[in-house]
What we know:
Elements: H1 8-41, H2 45-55, H3 73-81
Amino acid sequence: xxxxxxxxxxxxxxxxxxxxxxxxxxxxxxxxxxxxxxxxxxxxxxxxxxxxxxxxxxxxxxxxxxxxxxxxxxxxxxxxxxxxxxxxxxxxxxx
Length: 95
């Protein structure tokens, strides 16, 4: 029995669906890269708002990434939330 190929319209539909899926995946990867770049450079608005909020809590030492208080009364509040000094680098929190 000879193998039958797909009709042209099904083959085109499959190819276009594959193309759309691949393009959407690439767009997500680009979006992810842009988002991480914004977070690491401090340009992400959500990260900026969080830093401003955490910066308003009084403390003498802060996380260099997110401004979470690492000492004083603010550190007690952060420990209740689950953030503390990172063991491998005391300049950062465990966020």
